[in-house]
Protein backbone atom coordinates (compact mmCIF):
# COMPACT_ATOMS: atom_id res chain seq x y z
CA UNK A 1 0.00 0.00 0.00
CA UNK A 2 2.97 2.34 0.51
CA UNK A 3 3.43 2.93 -3.22
CA UNK A 4 -0.24 3.91 -3.51
CA UNK A 5 -0.11 6.22 -0.51
CA UNK A 6 2.92 8.02 -1.94
CA UNK A 7 0.89 9.23 -4.91
CA UNK A 8 -2.27 10.08 -3.01
CA UNK A 9 -3.62 13.58 -2.52
CA UNK A 10 -4.73 12.54 0.93
CA UNK A 11 -5.73 9.63 3.12
CA UNK A 12 -8.89 9.26 5.20
CA UNK A 13 -8.76 6.82 8.11
CA UNK A 14 -11.63 5.39 10.12
CA UNK A 15 -13.38 2.26 11.33
CA UNK A 16 -16.63 1.83 9.40
CA UNK A 17 -18.03 -0.24 12.25
CA UNK A 18 -18.34 3.06 14.13
CA UNK A 19 -20.80 5.70 12.97
CA UNK A 20 -18.62 8.36 14.60
CA UNK A 21 -15.60 7.18 12.63
CA UNK A 22 -17.64 6.94 9.43
CA UNK A 23 -18.77 10.53 9.84
CA UNK A 24 -15.14 11.45 10.41
CA UNK A 25 -14.13 9.73 7.17
CA UNK A 26 -16.69 11.84 5.31
CA UNK A 27 -15.28 14.99 6.93
CA UNK A 28 -11.71 13.99 6.07
CA UNK A 29 -12.60 13.34 2.44
CA UNK A 30 -14.50 16.62 2.17
CA UNK A 31 -11.44 18.41 3.51
CA UNK A 32 -9.38 16.91 0.66
CA UNK A 33 -11.94 18.04 -1.92
CA UNK A 34 -14.83 16.80 -4.02
CA UNK A 35 -14.16 13.37 -5.48
CA UNK A 36 -14.72 12.57 -9.16
CA UNK A 37 -15.83 9.04 -8.26
CA UNK A 38 -16.34 6.99 -5.11
CA UNK A 39 -16.33 3.18 -5.04
CA UNK A 40 -18.00 1.80 -1.92
CA UNK A 41 -16.07 -1.45 -1.68
CA UNK A 42 -15.49 -2.00 2.05
CA UNK A 43 -17.40 -4.87 3.61
CA UNK A 44 -17.31 -7.96 5.77
CA UNK A 45 -18.59 -11.47 5.08
CA UNK A 46 -20.72 -13.76 7.21
CA UNK A 47 -20.18 -12.45 10.73
CA UNK A 48 -20.51 -15.19 13.34
CA UNK A 49 -22.61 -13.00 15.63
CA UNK A 50 -24.63 -9.81 15.50
CA UNK A 51 -22.01 -7.65 17.16
CA UNK A 52 -23.04 -5.08 18.12
CA UNK A 53 -21.24 -1.90 17.01
CA UNK A 54 -20.53 1.02 19.37
CA UNK A 55 -23.94 2.42 18.41
CA UNK A 56 -25.63 -0.94 19.04
CA UNK A 57 -26.21 -1.98 15.42
CA UNK A 58 -25.55 -5.34 13.81
CA UNK A 59 -21.93 -5.13 12.67
CA UNK A 60 -22.55 -6.51 9.18
CA UNK A 61 -25.38 -4.04 8.60
CA UNK A 62 -23.29 -1.14 9.88
CA UNK A 63 -20.23 -1.84 7.74
CA UNK A 64 -21.88 -3.16 4.57
CA UNK A 65 -24.90 -0.87 4.35
CA UNK A 66 -25.10 1.92 6.94
CA UNK A 67 -21.53 3.10 6.32
CA UNK A 68 -21.97 3.62 2.55
CA UNK A 69 -25.29 5.34 3.29
CA UNK A 70 -23.66 7.74 5.78
CA UNK A 71 -20.74 8.43 3.45
CA UNK A 72 -23.08 9.01 0.52
CA UNK A 73 -25.19 11.44 2.51
CA UNK A 74 -22.33 13.40 4.09
CA UNK A 75 -19.64 13.54 1.42
CA UNK A 76 -19.78 16.18 -1.29
CA UNK A 77 -21.55 14.63 -4.24
CA UNK A 78 -19.10 13.09 -6.71
CA UNK A 79 -19.77 12.68 -10.41
CA UNK A 80 -20.01 8.91 -10.02
CA UNK A 81 -20.91 6.47 -7.27
CA UNK A 82 -20.31 2.73 -7.45
CA UNK A 83 -21.58 0.33 -4.78
CA UNK A 84 -20.04 -3.14 -4.65
CA UNK A 85 -22.69 -5.77 -4.04
CA UNK A 86 -22.89 -9.50 -4.68
CA UNK A 87 -25.07 -12.09 -6.38
CA UNK A 88 -26.04 -12.93 -2.80
CA UNK A 89 -28.47 -10.00 -3.02
CA UNK A 90 -31.04 -12.47 -4.33
CA UNK A 91 -30.82 -14.46 -1.09
CA UNK A 92 -31.61 -11.31 0.89
CA UNK A 93 -34.86 -10.66 -0.93
CA UNK A 94 -38.04 -10.19 1.06
CA UNK A 95 -39.92 -7.51 3.00
CA UNK A 96 -38.07 -5.01 5.16
CA UNK A 97 -38.42 -6.18 8.73
CA UNK A 98 -36.10 -5.89 11.72
CA UNK A 99 -33.15 -5.01 9.45
CA UNK A 100 -30.95 -4.46 12.53
CA UNK A 101 -31.58 -7.99 13.82
CA UNK A 102 -32.93 -6.94 17.20
CA UNK A 103 -35.71 -9.54 17.29
CA UNK A 104 -34.81 -12.15 14.69
CA UNK A 105 -32.51 -15.05 15.49
CA UNK A 106 -29.07 -14.26 14.03
CA UNK A 107 -28.43 -15.80 10.62
CA UNK A 108 -24.99 -14.87 9.19
CA UNK A 109 -25.79 -15.89 5.61
CA UNK A 110 -29.11 -14.05 5.59
CA UNK A 111 -27.59 -10.94 7.21
CA UNK A 112 -24.85 -10.78 4.58
CA UNK A 113 -27.30 -11.31 1.72
CA UNK A 114 -29.63 -8.62 3.02
CA UNK A 115 -26.76 -6.14 3.34
CA UNK A 116 -25.90 -6.73 -0.32
CA UNK A 117 -29.54 -6.31 -1.32
CA UNK A 118 -29.62 -3.01 0.56
CA UNK A 119 -26.59 -1.50 -1.18
CA UNK A 120 -28.12 -2.22 -4.60
CA UNK A 121 -31.36 -0.55 -3.52
CA UNK A 122 -29.30 2.36 -2.15
CA UNK A 123 -27.51 2.74 -5.48
CA UNK A 124 -30.81 2.83 -7.34
CA UNK A 125 -32.39 5.25 -4.84
CA UNK A 126 -29.45 7.62 -5.28
CA UNK A 127 -29.67 7.32 -9.07
CA UNK A 128 -33.33 8.32 -8.87
CA UNK A 129 -32.87 11.15 -6.36
CA UNK A 130 -29.65 12.63 -7.75
CA UNK A 131 -29.94 12.65 -11.55
CA UNK A 132 -26.67 14.58 -11.92
CA UNK A 133 -24.74 11.71 -10.29
CA UNK A 134 -24.08 8.40 -12.05
CA UNK A 135 -24.93 5.76 -9.44
CA UNK A 136 -24.56 2.04 -10.12
CA UNK A 137 -24.12 -1.27 -8.29
CA UNK A 138 -21.63 -3.99 -9.22
CA UNK A 139 -21.40 -7.71 -8.58
CA UNK A 140 -17.64 -8.39 -8.92
CA UNK A 141 -18.12 -12.13 -8.74
CA UNK A 142 -16.40 -14.57 -6.40
CA UNK A 143 -12.90 -13.18 -6.78
CA UNK A 144 -9.54 -14.46 -5.58
CA UNK A 145 -9.05 -12.02 -2.72
CA UNK A 146 -8.19 -12.67 0.90
CA UNK A 147 -11.93 -12.91 1.56
CA UNK A 148 -12.73 -14.96 -1.55
CA UNK A 149 -9.82 -17.34 -1.14
CA UNK A 150 -7.32 -18.84 -3.57
CA UNK A 151 -9.85 -21.22 -5.13
CA UNK A 152 -12.34 -18.53 -6.20
CA UNK A 153 -13.10 -18.72 -9.95
CA UNK A 154 -12.78 -14.99 -10.75
CA UNK A 155 -9.36 -13.38 -11.10
CA UNK A 156 -8.53 -10.23 -9.16
CA UNK A 157 -8.23 -8.30 -12.42
CA UNK A 158 -11.67 -9.38 -13.61
CA UNK A 159 -13.16 -8.75 -10.18
CA UNK A 160 -12.11 -5.10 -10.16
CA UNK A 161 -12.60 -4.31 -13.84
CA UNK A 162 -16.27 -3.27 -13.93
CA UNK A 163 -16.21 -0.88 -10.99
CA UNK A 164 -12.94 0.68 -12.19
CA UNK A 165 -14.40 1.15 -15.68
CA UNK A 166 -17.56 2.74 -14.31
CA UNK A 167 -15.46 5.10 -12.21
CA UNK A 168 -13.32 6.53 -15.01
CA UNK A 169 -14.52 5.58 -18.48
CA UNK A 170 -15.92 8.23 -20.84
CA UNK A 171 -17.44 5.57 -23.08
CA UNK A 172 -21.21 6.12 -23.54
CA UNK A 173 -21.88 2.64 -22.14
CA UNK A 174 -20.32 3.69 -18.82
CA UNK A 175 -22.07 7.06 -18.63
CA UNK A 176 -25.32 5.61 -17.31
CA UNK A 177 -27.04 5.42 -13.94
CA UNK A 178 -29.27 3.06 -12.02
CA UNK A 179 -27.91 -0.26 -13.26
CA UNK A 180 -26.61 -3.46 -11.69
CA UNK A 181 -23.47 -4.78 -13.38
CA UNK A 182 -21.39 -7.92 -13.63
CA UNK A 183 -18.36 -8.29 -15.90
CA UNK A 184 -19.13 -5.07 -17.84
CA UNK A 185 -22.72 -6.13 -18.55
CA UNK A 186 -26.10 -5.16 -17.14
CA UNK A 187 -27.68 -7.81 -14.95
CA UNK A 188 -31.03 -8.07 -13.21
CA UNK A 189 -30.81 -7.86 -9.40
CA UNK A 190 -33.48 -8.92 -6.90
CA UNK A 191 -36.79 -7.29 -7.79
CA UNK A 192 -37.05 -5.44 -4.47
CA UNK A 193 -34.11 -3.23 -5.39
CA UNK A 194 -35.96 -1.63 -8.31
CA UNK A 195 -39.14 -1.09 -6.32
CA UNK A 196 -39.43 2.63 -5.48
CA UNK A 197 -41.52 1.98 -2.37
CA UNK A 198 -38.91 -0.48 -1.09
CA UNK A 199 -36.12 2.01 -1.81
CA UNK A 200 -37.91 4.80 0.06
CA UNK A 201 -38.69 2.54 3.02
CA UNK A 202 -35.05 1.47 3.19
CA UNK A 203 -33.79 5.07 3.11
CA UNK A 204 -36.23 5.89 5.91
CA UNK A 205 -34.92 2.93 7.94
CA UNK A 206 -31.33 4.06 7.37
CA UNK A 207 -32.19 7.59 8.43
CA UNK A 208 -33.82 6.34 11.63
CA UNK A 209 -30.83 4.14 12.46
CA UNK A 210 -28.13 6.74 11.69
CA UNK A 211 -29.84 10.10 12.27
CA UNK A 212 -28.40 11.10 8.90
CA UNK A 213 -30.66 12.37 6.11
CA UNK A 214 -30.13 11.68 2.42
CA UNK A 215 -31.33 14.83 0.67
Give the SSE string.
HHEHEHEHEEH
The helix/strand class is alpha/beta
Tally the helices: what do you get? 6
Radius of gyration: 16 Å
Oligomer designation: single chain
Q: Which percent range describes the beta-strand content?
A: 5-15%
Describe this structure in words.
The structure is a single chain. Helix 2 (19-32) packs parallel to helix 3, helix 3 (59-74) packs parallel to helix 4 and helix 4 crosses helix 6 (196-210). The longest helix has 22 residues, at 108-129. Helices cover 40% and strands 9% of the residues. It has 215 residues and is an alpha/beta fold. The chain has six helices and five strands. It has helices spanning 2-6, 19-32, 59-74, 108-129, 156-168, 196-210, and strands at 37-40, 80-84, 134-138, 180-182, 185-187. A five-stranded mixed sheet has the order 1-2-3-4-5, sandwiched between helices.
Could you list some keywords that capture this structure?
215 residues; alpha/beta; five-stranded mixed sheet
Give a concise summary.
This protein has a 5-stranded mixed beta sheet with strand order 1-2-3-4-5, sandwiched between helices. It has about 220 residues and is an alpha/beta fold.
How is the topology of this model organized?
Elements: H1 2-6, H2 19-32, E1 37-40, H3 59-74, E2 80-84, H4 108-129, E3 134-138, H5 156-168, E4 180-182, E5 185-187, H6 196-210
Parallel strand pairs: 1-2, 2-3, 3-4
Antiparallel strand pairs: 4-5
Helix pairs in contact: 2-3, 3-4, 4-6
Amino acid sequence: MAHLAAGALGIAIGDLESAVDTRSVAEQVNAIGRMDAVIHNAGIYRDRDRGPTPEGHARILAINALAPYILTALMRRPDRLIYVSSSENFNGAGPLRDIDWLKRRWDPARAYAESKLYVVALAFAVARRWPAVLSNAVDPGWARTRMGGALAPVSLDTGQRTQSWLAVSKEPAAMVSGFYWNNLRHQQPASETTNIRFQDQLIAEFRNLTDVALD
